[in-house]
Amino acid sequence: MSRVRSSPRGGFTLIELLVVIAIIAILIGMLLPAVQKVRESAARSDCANKMKQLGIACHAYHDSNKKLPPAVLTTQGSAPNAESQSWGPNWAVLILPYIEQDNLYKQFSASIASFPNDNNTTWRGVRSTVLASFKCPTDDQNDPANKFTGAGGNWARGNYACNNGPAVPGDNYGGNSSNAGFGFPGGGPMCANFGASLQSLNNQDGTSNTIMLAEVRSGKSNDRRGVWAMGFAGSSIVAGHAIGDDQTPNYENPGGACSDDVEANYGAIDNWQDGMGNWDGCQSNQGQSRSRHSNGVNVCFCDGSVRFVTNNIGQLTWYCLNSRNDRQAVSPP
Prior knowledge:
This protein is an alpha+beta fold. It is built from seven helices and nine strands; from the N terminus they run H-E-E-H-H-H-E-H-E-E-H-E-E-E-E-H. About 45% of the residues are buried.
């Protein structure tokens, strides 16, 4: 009887196994950027949808009040200081009933309604409420635990700001139109104690040519940039954002020089390496539109349309799109 010899059982050698692992690693490396790109595209779309809803809410406020909401209510005609008690609710607080937050609004409605006739600060109780409507999914600093610690503390983060105009806030708070940067007016549609009517905007540069809302980035705990209920430049207002050292979206001066101008005591860290430059010793209240999106920011125009503006937009174009009354023939990108 003959025996059948069995052949040795085959298997991977160490070299073959390493080759397979290397191929898998290369494939993952090739797929990861594509996955990240898809995720960012989805996040940017979600951000644009949120901004669209805020634009609709501003229009609903306009329908009820015959004007857009003011950027911030204040008992004085110029830019309020964060340390004073002269500032009241901002535009985001005023539109709460129009974004399905009527119950939150009603808790503080008496204090909200009393500004700018008194200094009742009870309305600031809204500040700790985290609202998804004001948060861009791309900004990793708007975590609920990362609240702003100044001005009483516990201020929840947000990434959407109204447009006060490219002129410095001290010049055009209250809706005045100053000359700034390019020698023609730079007033925005929403300023302190002032909200433009859509009709007046149509008679000036047009609702489709004037930015109403723009993105801002959230700062770290002691940085008041990116705070939804606080009506200051960089917090929930963009202002002076096409002149001086704050020229275009996400702007950073060459060599790491300052960019935003937010006061020191309730101010911002000069973190230019991370795209958050600031000169905290300057009181000019400049706050640029910023985001974590790749190469640009979402903006909502006064007609309710939302568009993505890239960082390389021309400074003059950016100035004119943010000014309601420059009378320049500039079309949106």
